UniProtKB/TrEMBL annotation, chain A:
The lineage of its organism: Bacteria, Bacillati, Bacillota, Clostridia, Eubacteriales. It comes from Faecalispora sporosphaeroides. InterPro entries: MetI-like, MetI-like_sf. Keywords: Cell membrane, Membrane, Transmembrane, Transmembrane helix, Transport. Coiled coil: none annotated. Pfam families: BPD_transp_1. This is Carbohydrate ABC transporter permease. It is found in: Cell membrane. It is a multi-pass membrane protein. The chain crosses the membrane at residues 12-32, 67-91, 103-127, 133-153, 178-200, 237-258. Residues 68-258 form the ABC transmembrane type-1 domain. Belongs to the binding-protein-dependent transport system permease family. One of its GO terms (biological process) is transmembrane transport. One of its GO terms (cellular component) is plasma membrane.
Automatic annotation (TrEMBL), chain C:
PROSITE patterns: ABC_TM1. This is Sugar ABC transporter permease. The lineage of its organism: Bacteria, Bacillati, Bacillota, Clostridia, Eubacteriales. Pfam families: BPD_transp_1. Its main location: membrane. The chain crosses the membrane at residues 12-31, 69-94, 106-126, 146-165, 204-228, 260-284.
Amino acid sequence: MKIFSNIGKTICNLILLLVFFFPFYWMLSTAFKTLGETMTFPPALFPANPQWENFLHVIEVIPFGHYLINSCITTIAVVVLQMFTTIPAAYAFSQYDFKGKPLLFGLTLITMMIPAQLVFMPLFILFSQFNMINTYASLILPFAGSAFGIFLLRQRFNQVPKELLEAARLDKASELKIIWKIFLPLSRPVLVTLALLTFIGKWNDYFWPLVLTTNDTVRTLPMGIVTMTNAESGTPYHLLMAGNVLISIPIIVIYLFAHKHIIKAFTYMGDK
Amino acid sequence: MSEIVLKDVTKTYDKRNTVIQNLDLRIEDGSFTVLVGPSGCGKSTILRMIAGLEPLTAGEMLIDGKVVNEVKPGDRDIAMVFQNYALYPTMTVKGNIEFGLINNKIPKKEREHRITEICETVGLAEYLDRKPAQLSGGQRQRVALARAMVKNPKVFLMDEPLSNLDAKLRGQMRSELIDLHRKLSATFVYVTHDQTEAMSMATNVVLLDRGVIQQADTPFEVYQKPANVFTAQFIGSPTMNLFCRKDVAPYLTAQLPEKVHKIGFRPSRALPVADGEQPQNSLTVSGKVLTRELMGSEIIYRLLSPFGIITFKTFNEEELAPDSSVTLSIDRHSMHLFDSDGQRVEE
Amino acid sequence: MKKKFLSIGKPYLLIAPAMAAFLLFSIYPVMSMVQLSLFDWNMISPEKDFIGLANYQKLFYDEDFRQTLLNTAVFTVFSVLGDIGLGLLIALYLKKNTLVNRIMQSVIFAPYIISLASISLLWMWLMNPDYGLLNAALEALHIPGINWLGSPQYAMLSVILICVWKSVGYDAMILLAALQSVPENLYEAAALDRASWWRKLTKVTLPMISPTLFFLTIVETIASFNVFETIQILTRGGPQNSTDTIVFSLYQYGFKFYRIGYASTIGVVLMIIMTLFTIVYFVLLSKRVHYQ
């Protein structure tokens, strides 16, 4: 019985690995194949000769460096900017009573329900009126506020025991010091998680650069890779997969180190 | 000098819920004053107002003769120990103790000196680099104390600091706090709902009920001369027996003033006497033993008398069997007399 | 006096940056879209023609848009069911906290954090009708290959498959956390009451995690209404409009045909649909969800 259930479990695990992991293996394997190898049927499991130069090719064919710089600038700027808007707002919503607070908090929550896919056109028009299409600002500013971040961080701030703040006040700590020394250290897991979620989201973002740019000036990596599908001589899948590997590396590296943080973020929502 | 005076203080929450009304209280310099009372009596509110954590709705708060209503908690030269200790979880033990000193801009050398000294005193020297989560309950308690002591405050405020400890440790900490008070000669204001704690540590007891001071005096006086029925029944364990005069009149051979309405006596003062004996100037009644609780050095009985259940306490080795008949006698001088308003009748 | 003003104004000062961002980049565009939907405009000409509700009228009788709505509905229903149903199965399967299970969790979650663009390209390759891995696998089982993304009857199914594959790990992780927070003694009590595995699931587990199921349903529904990248990269709405969804046609009308007013109308309709769904969910489910 025990052996049977163990075998069953192993089979289930193998199926799950086949479904969720094998595609990634296939991406990696294809990235090392030649164009000719991508056009054989049935396809080979392993590349005959690993083609490292595929990666060099990708970097040359699309201006990889250019896209990379754009990706870094927009991603880091959005992460930093969100911290600057989210921390004070979450602190105010958590620690202060002020007129219109429920209304403003409600407004914050409502924006969580308004996705980029709904608002891109009016914003495109807005940015074009200010001649800001194809600028970094048009890719960064719309993501300056994070309703989810405010919500999550406020939740954490609310859990900070009142006595702790009173103890700090008795210890003559200024408000800034209380935020810096008590609220933020206690919220570190939430802050790390928020930064990670934003980083991953922006690094991966294909939609916003697609709809808000008309040329390559500020476009980021995901768009850069997709442009390769328009090759005249058929789709070079080996290069596409090599590109995919390149842009996924930072995400996978971060994930290997921080997947626990990401899981934690979601359990905060259910906790308490 | 660090005398605390509350003048005509009122505290109202949300404009409706008045917790304390027109309260006057003087906490003597260097005293160990314990605010005691049932939960909701306003004792914690008073403590928090002294700390400056709650604003006064009306009235004045003076420390050392200076009005401090508008003085921030950090500028009142007080330290507070919280019920759950309120240690900063992300800082080490040292960080916790040092935090207030840094905020008060005390030079590093002086800080190090003070911290070392305090940690020797409370026995934390080896735990300085630990985080609070890595400490036991008793150790956390010590960190909380050290954090308060290191500031050399004029006033120590303590909000039920021992309630999270187990019974044995609590007893130990009690004596340590008494010691500490003697050594520091600062003013201690201590809040508890536990009358034993109050009686054992205080130099002054302030007994509160529903925001009103019932009695403020030394523990000895409070026990010996309870000012009213509430005090009489709140202090002392087991609770004082209290009966209406008209119920016990047939068993009374003592002369009592006219206005006496209620008669109380402590369980330890109800003494078993031999059958048929009728001591003079006393209350003598017979009844049947209902229950017996062996406490160690003493035994507590509940006795069914014609006018109600009497609790009494003996220190005899000899046990009274349940259901056995006993005659109790209470001497006139052991009786506490109260008028119809529940106030003590002075003689 | 100045100090007093500062202390009253402080919370507003603290929330101002975030609120400014929300007003400018969420609230304003929604308002603007409502306004634009009443005009006929090609984005280039300086003149906008006010045409009242004509756009709405046209949209109401637009056969293509009806197809778009239907496609979006099909996509939403199946991807939400797939995400939550499979997510729950996976969560139940991986509930026990063992090393193997933790590794499996990380593997299943991985597609969620990879760019949708990469995922789309990867599946474009896997589903390639001539040299793709999926058809090779089918061939090996002696099943004829499928034109996954190129045929009207399979394209939508393929897109749904890809989207569920990508996000099921997210649902599984959230459900897993919810499952693990159900107090063990409830199961012990149920076991003492001789409850079967099925009854434990339906009477203890599901009610206890119903707030999470509720949360996921809303989140996934709204995400599904807004499906775009996969469609844009893989099918461009085709073949024969079989994968044309609301956001994709909004994009097409706006940025390809420059019919801003008509595109805005589609946006407003999408917004109304999302709002209605959210309200209906809250009304229907909040009565039955068990909150602690």
